[in-house]
């Protein structure tokens, strides 16, 4: 059971970080030759590890995958930090915001936590509040990013995304307070259970919106600069969040697979 959980994490995270490498690669100006080269190398290396994770692995092979994934992800963290520093000083031409890099680093560090737990023989699963703080913050950025990257004529989708941004912001701020309540020593209580339900009730329709946007952008029925892969990436992350809540907060398990192959 523990091995299956670790493999699931690899299949999700290796693809997510491979997406990140693609976002960086696609967004760099043509004259950023070295950064483009590095981003492509990370794309290829994450794709290689993802292919390995999709095989049936022995325990020794899984241990090797854990080590390789940790080493590669630590290197990728340094690369992202370097790029983020350059955006702070206007020394790079890239069509990604500083906050977008920050979100990508936050996600990467979540995978590092999972890898550390796995290497220590622990089940890589955490308290519901851990997932609220990680993924509600992320969802704020997702909703804002959708609204900012749709054509101005797409008023309905833009307004809906802005509404989700506000709702996720409110729930994130609530999660910050609820985290403080855990200092009482209580792991669960009625207001936390309600927060879990609120998160699920808002995340399920947002994930469905992202899936709709992915399809509409792929055949140009929805105008904008948002890549279909970006919407697909976001939807897989929302699915992962919902699955983690189902495991830790006993909410309903979502009918989705966060490790499904990306939309190329």
Describe the structure in your own words:
The protein is mainly α. The protein folds into two domains: 1-124, Protein of unknown function DUF2935 (Ferritin, Up-down Bundle); 125-263, Protein of unknown function DUF2935 (Ferritin, Up-down Bundle). The chain is 75% helix and 0% strand. It contains eight helices and no strands. It has helices at 2-27, 33-53, 59-88, 98-119, 128-148, 155-181, 190-218, 228-248. Helix 1 runs antiparallel to helix 4 and helix 5 runs antiparallel to helix 8 (228-248). The longest helix has 30 residues, at 59-88. The radius of gyration is 19 Å and the shape is globular. Residues 36-63 form a coiled coil. This is DUF2935 domain-containing protein. Keywords: Coiled coil. It comes from Anaerocolumna sedimenticola. It holds the Pfam family DUF2935.
Provide a quick synopsis of the model.
This protein has 264 residues and is mainly α. It is 75% helix and 0% strand. It has two domains: 1-124, Ferritin (Up-down Bundle), CATH 1.20.1260.120; 125-263, Ferritin.
């Amino acid at each position: 059971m523990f091995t299956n959980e670790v493999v699931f994490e690899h299949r999700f995270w290796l693809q997510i970080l491979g997406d990140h490498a693609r976002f960086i690669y696609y967004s760099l100006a043509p004259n950023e030759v070295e950064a483009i080269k590095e981003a492509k190398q990370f794309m290829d290396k994450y794709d290689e590890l993802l292919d390995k994770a999709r095989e049936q692995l022995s325990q020794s092979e899984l241990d090797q995958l854990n080590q390789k994934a940790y080493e590669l992800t630590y290197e990728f963290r340094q690369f992202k930090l370097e790029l983020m520093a350059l955006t702070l000083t206007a020394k790079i031409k890239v069509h990604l915001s500083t906050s977008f890099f920050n979100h990508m680093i936050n996600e990467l560090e979540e995978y590092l936590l999972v890898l550390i737990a796995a290497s220590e023989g622990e089940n890589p699963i955490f308290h519901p509040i851990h997932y609220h703080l990680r993924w509600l913050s992320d969802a704020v950025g997702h909703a804002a990013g959708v609204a900012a990257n749709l054509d101005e004529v797409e008023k309905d989708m833009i307004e809906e995304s802005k509404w989700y941004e506000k709702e996720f912001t409110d729930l994130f701020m609530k999660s910050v307070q609820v985290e403080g309540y855990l200092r009482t020593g209580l792991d669960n209580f009625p207001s936390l259970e309600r927060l879990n339900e609120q998160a699920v009730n808002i995340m399920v329709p947002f994930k469905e919106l992202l899936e709709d946007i992915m399809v509409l952008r792929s055949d140009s029925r929805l105008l904008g600069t948002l890549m279909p892969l970006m919407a697909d990436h976001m939807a897989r992350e929302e699915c992962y969040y919902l699955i983690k809540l189902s495991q830790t907060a006993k909410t309903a398990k979502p009918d989705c697979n966060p490790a499904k192959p990306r939309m190329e």
